[in-house]
Amino acid sequence: MPLGGTIVNGIIRDFKAIGHHGTREAHGRANGIDPELALFLGCWLKAPHRIGALAPSSRYLARAMVRQVDVRQARLVIELGGGTGSITRALLAAGLTPERLVVVEREERLHRRLVEQFPGLRVLRGDAAQLVALLRPLGISSASAIVSSLPLLSMPKRLRHRIVDQSFALLGERGSLVQFTYGIASPLPARDFAVSGRVAARVWRNLPPAFVWRFERASGAIAKVA
Ligand SMILES: C[S@@+](CC[C@H](N)C(=O)[O-])C[C@H]1O[C@@H](n2cnc3c(N)ncnc32)[C@H](O)[C@@H]1O
Fold first, then answer.
1. Which CATH number fits the domain that encloses residue 177?
2. Which among 148, 45, 167, 59 has a CA at the least distance from the CA of 106?
3. Are residue 123 and residue 159 in the same domain, yes or no?
4. Measuring from atom 9 of ligand 1, which residue has the nearest CA?
5. Is 77 close to ligand 1, i.e. is its CB under 6 Å away?
6. Nearest 10 degrees: Cα torsion 197, 203, 208, 210
7. Averaged pLDDT score across all residues of the chain
8. Could you tell me where the DSSP H helices lie in the chain?
9. Which residue of 45, 85, 151, 215 shows the fewest CB atoms closer than 10 Å?
10. Per residue in 95-125, pLDDT tens?
11. What is the pLDDT of residue 25?
């Protein structure tokens, strides 16, 4: 096996060893490699900055994200950056019914995988920076919560602004944007993004450990977007 393959297999073994990814055990495996983890890692190897993480979120991180959403009351939740579905699964497991969830994923292979894995769920292929236009054909112009695992910190500020403006155009002043990050600092500093944010959870059982942030925006700061 080439050196790259050996390294990848080694990383995969390490993730498994810490129970990072424990939900797909029964799924078909080739050479002992979890296909979901292999797909994710393959996408990361091709374009690390577009994916932003080496492996899917652990179930502990996924649950911490979902705890920030009132799944019983939410009219509609939008998930940004579905990946291989760690957070999607946790949202559904927490009781969010599929018709109240829309998932957005930009990468073609990950999008296809989500569609196969969650039949009946609305999984859109597109860029979160075009969120309002992406949702328009579905007749969606508002959301109760947005749960995002987008790699905000590896994006230029202009793109982050666009995603945040689009998100709050849908959320209004009552909805929350829930976002995890591996950094200690806020991925959306208040002085730059006109949001108020707080750390809602710290999750050590994830590689790397993560912080879950929850952001709101006052109505005066909500921009009109096309
Ligand atoms: C860190 S991964 C998280 C995946 C998954 N939610 C999880 O927690 O395991 C980020 C995901 O966001 C997707 N993504 C990155 N930029 C995006 C964008 N502008 N619009 C939509 N999806 C994007 C990536 O393709 C990747 O699947």
1. 3.40.50.150
2. 148
3. yes
4. 56
5. no
6. 0
7. 89
8. 3-17, 35-46, 48-51, 59-66, 86-93, 108-117, 131-135, 157-171, 190-193
9. 45
10. 999 999 999 999 999 999 999 999 999 999 9
11. 40
67 and 21 part of one domain: no
The one-letter code for the residue type at 181 is: T
**How far is the C-alpha of 131 from the C-alpha of 92, rounded, in Å?**
22
Inter-residue contact 157 to 192 (CB < 8 Å): yes
**Domain membership flag for residue 226:** no
Three-state SS at 57: coil
Give per-residue pLDDT as tens, 62-83.
Answer: 999 999 999 999 999 999 999 9
The response to whether residue 106 sits with its C-beta less than 6 Å from ligand 1 reads: yes
Q: How far is the CA of 23 from the centre of ligand 1 (A)?
A: 19
User: For the whole model, what pTM was predicted?
Assistant: 0.88
Ligand 1 mutation target, pool 41, 43, 61, 107, most atoms within 8 A of CB: 107
Looking from the CA of residue 61, the nearest atom of ligand 1 is 8
